[in-house]
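Build the 3D complex.
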Amino acid sequence: MKIHLDTGKCQGHGRCYSLAPELFDCDDLGTAVVLVTGELNDDQLAKAKLAVGNCPEFAIVIGD
Amino acid sequence: MIKPPVTDFATDFDHTDEAWVADPYPIMDDLRERCPVAHSDRYGGLWAPMTYDAVAAIANDTEHFTSRTVVINNGRPGDDALPAPIGVAPPISSDPPFHEIARRLLLPAFAPRPIAALEPFTRELCNQLLDKMGDADLVDASVQYAEHIPVGLIAKLCGLPQEDGEQFREFVRIVLEGVDLPAEERLEAFKPVEEYIVPKIVELRENPDDGLISYLLDAEIMGEKLSDEHVFGSILLLIVAGIDTTWSAIGSSIWHLANNPDDLARLVAHPELLPSAVEEFLRAYAPVSMARLVKDDFEFQGCPMKKDDWIFLSFPAANRDPEAFDNADEVLIDREINRHSAFGLGIHRCLGSNLARMEMTVALEEWLKRYTKFELNASEPTTFSQGQVRGPRQLPIQILERS
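Done.
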């Protein structure tokens, strides 16, 4: 399972990089950037799900 | 002008009505069940969607809805009255494509890292306010605490003297209240705001500092300096939008804790819950309802909307929609899944959301470090603001235990 971020939907609410800083960071405008682009381990998957569940724009999807 | 009270919010909606001001949540729930888009002939025509789905759809639809003006009042800008597509206070009043240009100028100043740098200043400010409250057992958490915090931060951010900050609340009142005034009187009421901002622009053009106003004066769009209207409008936005909003959010959080001793005790014992508590307070007591104008006649979810009808865009109502949130009517300070829309949805996501969250977190942390048990003092009045920003304006708190 990997993180897919739709940068067209991201509006920089900043929830993902607050809740899962090991998986997400932000650029100078506050837009999310994915740090872990490969397969997620179990800990990372749990954190990624937290980010998905708190993104107001539904910009993050976990999938293949 | 005295308006008749609302008898049915479904057909005569008014967000300034006393019943809505006192407690809008049961009204939202009722309307969501039976409308779910309320209507009113007030303000020259207004629609008020109450579902998350409708609020999100409108927030994301810049083709049919314009942000040219975001404070519901009796006037309309008219097709030529404002420097469209910039609007009166860019970027909040701008539509695409100009919106993104204006927004990108401001975003770096409000990104997480520059905002984190303001945390020590915020903490010191909160402690000064708490020190001033001394060992009184009855304090007003709005008048003595919440209202001063955003004012101090905005002054600091803009490079304006701290002592000027106190005037900003008056500007907020002018812009956000008086919405029932005839359009001309409303324009006249804006004079003191102009009389404050225009000389500041002149002064900072001559002697720039490292504040945000000087940055805007120096900024360029495609090789050209910003127009005076643009700079003025963005300063107006910074001064107005960052104050009663955060003031309300801090006040509502303290109001909730004063009324819910279990949540208070839990948060005092487990300060690590504060981040999720802050998000939940933002969801449950989202202070801001925005507005849009309908661009052209258009049918939305079966509603025959007319050009220049207002949309009362209630993020607070969206946040209470049981279709979008489990146990939407319960405040759960450890809520794990929380896609609340307190800072809006779509391209107009609140520019200051990182600042607001930082202020709320620090303000609550410092308050809870001093006051470990408190309740609402029922013999003094608790009052809430009227209009598109909701929060306590008088918040009498009886201190029961301090650390």
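Residues 353-370 of chain B form the longest helix (18 residues).
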